[in-house]
Amino acid sequence: MRYNAGISQPVITFDAGQTLIELDLDFLATRLGERGLSVEVAALSAAMPAAWAHYDALVAQGTGHPWRDFMAHLLQGAAVPEPTPHVEWLWEQQPTRNLFRRPIPPMLAVAQELAAAGARIAVLSNSEGRLVELLTEIAIAPMFPVIVDSGRLGIEKPDPRIFAHTLRELGSAGPPDVIPIHIGDSWSADIVGARRSGWRAIWYGRNADAVHDPEIASAHSADDVRAALRRWGAL
């Protein structure tokens, strides 16, 4: 489907971490090597499920963006001794050496298809303030005319103001015949934020579960995302 310019163009925004990009374990192992630690990527990979479960539990409790807790749990699970100083060093390095840098090709393909069809697309992410630089470094930034980073804006999802800001940046006031759609992995930040803003939402990723709301779709794969977009006439 190809859309004409104007208010009929769909507006679709993507979260960044765990939606367009994910933790790069090879890069993490290399960075730990700079600290004199020899950590196998296989060990990090094996520790990931428990680390994400820990992260999810903290987010559910309202902790927000528990990066340090997640990383400490991951390194501990990979048998890194006394992980705290290494986590603090990684956090200090995060603005310029972001560990979440591995592209998720199937989701980037969805973004490309949307752009080719004439949709207005953007990245809308809770990040540390250097998301534009990161996406430029890994050659993703040119795909998205608008990249909204909460670390620069000073407003985080699920605050409806960051969704409204993104619409303005895209040149859209959200006309009633075009309901914006946000795609993300975090229920509390992405899905709750989108619905509070009057948007539709696609809950993507490992935690996505069936939801009894016609304005929310659950997706475990890029093909699931495409199916939801087609159902809403956005692709």
For this entry, give a set of tags.
14% strand; Rossmann fold; 44% helix; 8 strands; 235 residues; alpha/beta; 6-stranded parallel beta sheet
CATH architecture tag of the largest domain: 3-Layer(aba) Sandwich
Mean pLDDT: 92
Low-confidence segments, given as residue ranges, are: 3-7
Distance between the termini: 6 Å
Shape annotation? globular
Oligomeric state, counting identical vs distinct chains: single chain
Main sheet: strands, sense, barrel: 6 strands, parallel
**Range of helix content:** 40-55%
Note the beta-strand portion: 5-15%
Number of helices: 10
By CATH reckoning, the class of the largest domain would read Alpha Beta
CATH topology of the largest domain: Rossmann fold
Let me know the CATH homologous superfamily of the largest domain.
Answer: HAD superfamily/HAD-like
H and E order? EEHHHHEHEHEHHEHEEH
The secondary-structure class comes to: alpha/beta
Spatial ordering of strands, largest sheet: 5-4-1-6-7-8
- Number of beta-strand segments: 8
- The whole-angstrom Rg is 18 Å
Number of domains: 2
General description of the model:
- The structure is a single chain.
- This protein has 235 residues and is an alpha/beta fold.
- The chain folds into two domains: 11-21 and 101-231, Rossmann fold, CATH 3.40.50.1000; 25-98.
- It is built from ten helices and eight strands.
- A six-stranded parallel beta sheet has the order 5-4-1-6-7-8, with helices on both faces.
- It starts with 10 loop residues before the first strand and ends with a helix.
